[in-house]
Amino acid sequence: MKTWIALAALAAALVVQAPVAGASTVTMTGDTVTIRYLNPNSTTELTGNGFPVNVTVTPGLSDVVADAFPGGSFFTVNMEPTSIVVTFLQNTAFGPPSPFDGIGIFGINQTITGVTQTGGFPGIVSLIGNSVLFNFAGSNVYAAGSTVTADIALAPVPLPAGFLLLGGVLAGLGTAARRKGS
Fold first, then answer.
1. Which run of H or of E encompasses 32?
2. Interior/surface letters 131-149, b for 16+ CB within 10 angstroms, e for the rest
């Protein structure tokens, strides 16, 4: 009987301390992503002018990258744990007209379940697979100091398999203890 009570107490302690699926915060922190410049469509990469660039996601400004286009930097990209912020450094228009003129963020290790845009003109941010695209094409002028942010929804961390295995072992021990007591 004492063994059964001890096992029940252990199982209860593990359940209380076990992370509940979706309860823990999932972020891109630590992911090494590649920022690519894409033009004239979302599958054609233009190299040079500071792109492509690999960035390890960290909170704060230590991972901010700027383009290297002639005429000075036009924008920066800041990878945050659950968002991507593009800040325009000078009045900027993208052209000549093409279906796509902007950046793509590739290599995010976490599963993205959705993306929403704040700031800027509607329809700039999109999700293709597990990559986030910013399409600035069009006749829009982005004012110096303005931002476009992609807020990333990431899949929750599933309950670790070890906890499920431990639960099965405890259930087996409980069954064995009951049979022995009979």
1. strand 32-38
2. bbbbbbbbeeebeeebebb
CA distance 79 to 53: 12
Helix (H, G, I), strand (E, B) or coil at 165: helix
Can you list the residues of the chain whose pLDDT is less than 50? Answer: 4, 6-7, 9-10, 12-23
Q: In what order do the strands lie in the sheet with 83-88?
A: 65-66, 75-80, 83-88, 147-154, 112-118
* Structure token pair of residue 31: 């992911």
pLDDT reported for residue 178: 65
Task: Give 7-13 contacts, CB < 8 A, sequence gap 24+.
Answer: 7/170, 7/173, 7/174, 7/177, 8/174, 10/170, 11/167, 11/170
DSSP state of 48: B
Tokens 């639960």 locate to 167
Helix count and strand count (H, E) for the chain? 2, 13
Count of alpha carbons within 13 angstroms of residue 177, beta-carbon side: 14
Which amino acid is residue 122, in one-letter code? P
